[in-house]
Design brief:
The protein is of the alpha/beta class. Helices cover about 30% and strands about 25% of the residues. The protein is built from 10 helices and 12 strands. It has a 10-stranded mixed β-sheet, with helices on both faces. Strands 2-3 form a two-stranded antiparallel ribbon. The longest helix has 13 residues.
């Protein structure tokens, strides 16, 4: 903690209400403003990308976000802050596959601020850990993954009928709920949100990946804000390494471009932390 310098705020739009952060978090992150939509949760996303738009090196042993950020403590701290604010964290099956020992909580990603994160959640009256949601149409999931097996967090799998049948033929831990959607293939972002809010009263829902899932949220206009860490790395691509970018499986421009409004820019060493609002 002693070597982690505070983020420098380069621009802040100061929209909405200021969140009362514990001193230990405020000293590092600075001011945080949030606007809440009427009658529904605020849906945000957080990713890290190289300067050339790569979000995963997609090579065995180097698939996690840490390989993109250079294991930046500032990036981990920001992830922790957003998870501490969230009632729900949503990931895809691919994200779980590359991080089977992960649980999507603030203290897991940045244990140095464990006490401050707990204080923030108490202040926000969030008595439970965020509901960890894994989206998998096939239901082909490793039930020995920590998020399911350890019982540390409430977990929900959103899947199809075939996927649910596949899961129920195995021993699903008691802490894991299964939400069955209509259809046999794609699971719509609206459907995911519908299943989530039935099970957890939510003011903030955080989407952490992967890029196909995020593409669905943008395509269905379900995402309010994007937090994006720009890591000072050039990763590159070639015919052998078709590395994923922030959005996969969907195209928007030029027919249906998606434009954002800049809300803030912060700097931590050579990393930039940008935040955009989408209509």
């Amino acid at each position: 903690m002693s070597e982690l310098t505070p983020l420098e705020t380069l621009y802040a739009a100061q929209r909405g209400r200021v969140v009362k952060l514990p001193r230990a978090i405020a000293d590092l992150y600075g001011a945080l403003y949030l606007s809440s939509p009427r009658g529904r949760p605020l849906v945000i996303s957080n990713f890290v990308s190289t300067l050339d738009g790569v979000i995963s090196l997609a090579e065995r042993g180097h698939e996690t976000a840490g390989a993109i950020s250079g294991f930046s403590p500032h990036d981990r701290m920001v992830m922790g802050v957003l998870r501490a604010l969230a009632d729900v964290v949503i990931v895809g099956a691919g994200t779980l596959r590359v991080e089977p020992a992960h649980v999507w909580t603030a203290e897991h990603i940045f244990p140095e601020l464990k006490d401050a994160f707990a204080e923030l959640r108490r202040t926000l009256r969030k008595r439970e850990q965020p509901l960890n949601v894994v989206v998998s149409a096939s239901g082909k999931l490793d039930l020995k993954a920590r998020v399911f097996a350890a019982g540390e967090v409430p977990a929900l799998v959103v899947t199809t009928r075939d996927g649910a049948n596949r899961l129920r033929r195995r021993r699903v831990p008691d802490s894991v709920q299964i939400a069955v959607t209509r259809g046999t293939h794609a699971i719509h972002a609206q459907t995911i949100l519908h299943e989530v809010v039935k099970r957890r009263a939510s003011k903030i829902i955080l989407v952490e990946g992967g890029p196909q899932l995020l593409g669905d949220f943008f395509a269905e206009q379900c995402l309010d804000e994007q937090f994006l860490t720009l890591a000072p790395q050039i990763a590159g691509r070639d015919d052998e390494h078709q590395r994923p970018s922030l959005i996969m499986g969907k195209t928007f421009a030029p027919r249906h471009p998606v434009w954002g409004e800049l809300l803030s820019v912060k700097r931590g060493d050579s990393h930039l932390f940008v935040r955009y609002k989408f209509s």
